[in-house]
Amino acid sequence: MTRSEIPQLEVVTAIPDAESEDFVAQLLFSQGWSIIHRAFDSQSLTDFMRRRGQELRTVIVYQGDLPGFGDELMEEFDSPTVTFIGLDSTPWTSHEIMSVIRGKLRAPMLHSETTQIETTPSPATIKRINREATGGNRARKVIAITGSSGAPGRTRFATVLAQELSQLRPVLFIDADIRSQGLKGDRTLVQRNHLEIMPLDRQKRPTQIPDGDETMVVDLGTLPGLAEAVTDRRWHGSLVNNVLEKATHLIYLCKSTSASMAELAQFLREYPLLVKRLPVSYICVLTGHSRELREWESKFLTLTLGENRYVLREGQLEPTTPSGVLGSLKLGNPKRKEIAKIATSLS
Q1: Are 265 and 313 found together in one domain?
Q2: Which of 78-87, 104-113, 301-310 has the lowest mean pLDDT?
Q3: Mean of all residue pLDDT scores within the chain
Q4: For the domain that residue 215 is a member of, what is the CATH number?
Q5: Which residues contact 46 (CB under 8 A, 6 or more apart)?
Q6: Whole-model pTM?
Q7: What is the pLDDT of residue 2?
Q8: Distance separating alpha carbons of residues 77 and 139, to the nearest angstrom
Q9: CA distances from 193 to 32, 122, 134, 169, 200 (A)
Q10: Buried-most residue among 159, 202, 213, 289 (CB within 10 A)?
């Protein structure tokens, strides 16, 4: 993922204090967004918006103390293509500002009806969505798994993790990697008493994952460009946003290649600014047996300094032993120990 892949948003700033406006403008510019007008009073904002019209998508980032700014101005330009984002009560840090902006941009996509696409959920999905949770006070966990392109092992890791977690509680394993589903038609995956597998049907254009009370592991595939993810109103964009909204933990996988590490570096820079705050674990899958692996491992650990991270080898992405998580920990199985550690950290 490169910055050129991130679509620009056209932004109008309506902030009276020049220093504050410059801080916001530089922050948005760093995300590849275009500042098309800087209004320091309501008349300047009104004149610009009247000339621009309401056919084009416009984001207006404002503070309420802009001279002359009020409900009347907002009502005049109220339109599906115009988004007003107020910063009055926002702590003046880059993370908080971008969190507010991200939240406003994602809000229209939190419900599938905004996509204007008719969907036909499967009977299993309807049953899950309509049933009441029976898990008591236990908080439901939704673990979304994504990562770099180039097959770093997302599906294999998601499978192993789901199997490990199913030793302790019911797990629903959803294949939401619409572009390249790894579970569809796969009959080699062991079906266990507490593990249910549900590949989503691309033909039905799903916009949400089911509700319920089980722990859920979601193979999300490779995320699109993050700015695209928060503005995309198509059905797949709605599905991605629905998973990220429901997720209680995100796991990002990369592998020991220069391209994969470059994508990880880009993700680390942009993820905290554009997507909601939730715990993230980073995993590097090392392939091969050369000395270069030590360099890749060092590169990964440097990039993820201060983050929750793990290093695995391909041989560790294998089906669990019958003894499951606890057995792996007690027996010290070198192939299972790290997977067990990850699973227990999520329990």
Answers
A1: yes
A2: 104-113
A3: 76
A4: 3.40.50.300
A5: 73, 76
A6: 0.58
A7: 36
A8: 42
A9: 48, 22, 18, 10, 21
A10: 159
Residues 326, 210 share a domain: yes
Q: How confident is the model at residue 60 (pLDDT cuts 50, 70, 90)?
A: very high
Sheet harboring 280-286: ordered strands across?
195-199, 171-175, 215-221, 142-147, 249-255, 280-286, 308-313
pLDDT at 63 (0 to 100): 94
58 beta partners: 82
Domain count, the chain: 2
Calpha distance 288→337 (Å, rounded)? 20
Question: Using H for helix, E for strand and C for coil, what is the string for 312-347?
Answer: EEHHHCCCCCCCHHHHHHHHCCCCCHHHHHHHHHHC
Residues 231, 277 within the same domain: yes
Which helix (H) or strand (E) is 285 found in, with range? Answer: strand 280-286
The answer to whether residues 162 and 294 belong to one domain is: yes
pLDDT given at position 7: 44
Give the residue among 179, 178, 183, 143 at the shortest CA–CA distance from 164: 143
Mean pLDDT, residues 293-305 taken together = 90
Q: Identify the residue with better confidence: 71 or 4.
A: 71
Q: Would you say residue 95 lies in a domain?
A: no
DSSP state of 280: E
Adjacent-strand bridge partners of 125: none
Distance of alpha carbon 177 from alpha carbon 183, whole angstroms: 9
Q: What is the DSSP string of 13-74?
A: EE-SSHHHHHHHHHHHHHTT-EEEEEESSHHHHHHHHHHH-SSS-EEEEE-TTSTT-SHHHH
Cα separation, 154 vs 147, in Å, equals 7
Size of the chain in residues: 347
Q: What is the span of the domain harbouring residue 190?
A: 123-346
Does any domain span residue 71? Answer: yes
| One-character DSSP codes across 219-274 | EEES---HHHHHH--SHHHHHHHHHHHH-SEEEEEEESSHHHHHHHHHHHHHHHHH
Separation between Cα atoms, residue 91 and residue 271, nearest integer Å: 19
